Amino acid sequence: TASTDIRHYLQFSDFNAAEYAYIFERAALIKKKFKAYEKHQPLVDRTLAMIFEKASTRTRVSFEAGMYQLGGSVVHLTTGDSQLGRAEPIEDSAKVISRMVDLVMIRTYEQTKIELFAEHSRVPVINGLTNEFHPCQILADIFTYIEHRGSIRGKTVAWVGDGNNMANTWLQASEILGFKVHLSTPSGYEVDQSVAGIRSADSYKVFRDPMQACAGADLVTTDVWTSMGYEAENEARKKAFADWCVDSEMMKAAKPDALFMHCLPAHRGEEVEAEVIDGPQSVVWDEAENRLHAQKALMEFLLLGKLV
Ligand code: CP
Ligand code: NVA
């Protein structure tokens, strides 16, 4: 049976500020060792199962390479080539898979699916993206912010675009780590505070005009107009989101040293202009690389706890 003292990482709110401080410190150390070609293998003989019900480049490569670098191994499953696609109950899959591996990462649709899996799992479960949340991405994003600018506490993050999994996760992070989110979404695509489950509206502010959301921001960030699973809405979204393209005017409205982030994959000319994402304020390649280092720290923490 599943144990209740297992730590999972299903949403950003699963860890507190002190735990994030520890993970960011470990990520920095792990990155430094990686750059120096120094081995860091605390997870020898441990196995990570990765279950993908949606496509991925960064999440797959960072978890797979990361687990090997930590000394462990991985098993990669997709809906199409496992019994998951043939309606084996999630509870049964969780019981079986978690008897064979030490850690599970899942990318799926509804958050309730990953919660059900975790409930029946003997080992920690990591959210590799759901319709509602993308905690591993925000973990890497905040680690990237800290590397470039220091603490994010008290800063302002402008979110321009869809009130999606990324936006929900930024909201959770703002409440835990003490920064503000300025949200601008087209009408009909607003963030639902109850999905993020945050207690108050103190850490965020809603703006109709994306320029206003960017005014004075320390970080401007956006995401695709159409997330995975919402492809049928693509045409309607293209119309609704036309004014929510991060351009150099928006970057000028932000602080002069503001950073630009995007979780990728990006669509130049849709949610962001090429001159912004390929410009001097963009840190998107560091952000993508940091998935590797941040998630290695995450896996180490989930399996070994605090080491110091
Ligand atoms: N940002 C992100 O999660 O990318 P992938 O979909 O390529 O994993
Ligand atoms: N919001 C996007 C993020 C992709 C990494 C999606 O869910 O498809």
Automatic annotation (TrEMBL):
It is found in: Cytoplasm. One of its GO terms (cellular component) is cytoplasm. L-ornithine binds at residues 165, 223, 227-228. It catalyses: carbamoyl phosphate + L-ornithine = L-citrulline + phosphate + H(+). It comes from the Bacteria. GO terms for molecular function: amino acid binding; ornithine carbamoyltransferase activity. Carbamoyl phosphate binds at residues 56-59, 83, 107, 134-137, 263-264, 291. GO terms for biological process: citrulline biosynthetic process; L-arginine biosynthetic process via ornithine. Pathway: Amino-acid biosynthesis; L-arginine biosynthesis; L-arginine from L-ornithine and carbamoyl phosphate: step 1/3. InterPro entries: Asp/Orn_carbamoyltranf_P-bd, Asp/Orn_carbamoylTrfase, Asp/Orn_carbamoylTrfase_sf, Asp_carbamoyltransf_Asp/Orn-bd, Orn/put_carbamltrans, OTCase_ArgI. Residues 7-147 form the Aspartate/ornithine carbamoyltransferase carbamoyl-P binding domain. Residues 154-301 form the Aspartate/ornithine carbamoyltransferase Asp/Orn-binding domain. Keywords: Cytoplasm, Transferase. Its EC number is 2.1.3.3. It holds the Pfam family OTCace. The keyword NADP does not apply. PANTHER family: ORNITHINE CARBAMOYLTRANSFERASE, MITOCHONDRIAL (PTHR45753), ORNITHINE TRANSCARBAMYLASE, MITOCHONDRIAL (PTHR45753:SF3). Belongs to the aspartate/ornithine carbamoyltransferase superfamily. OTCase family. Reversibly catalyzes the transfer of the carbamoyl group from carbamoyl phosphate (CP) to the N(epsilon) atom of ornithine (ORN) to produce L-citrulline. This is Ornithine carbamoyltransferase. The gene is argF.
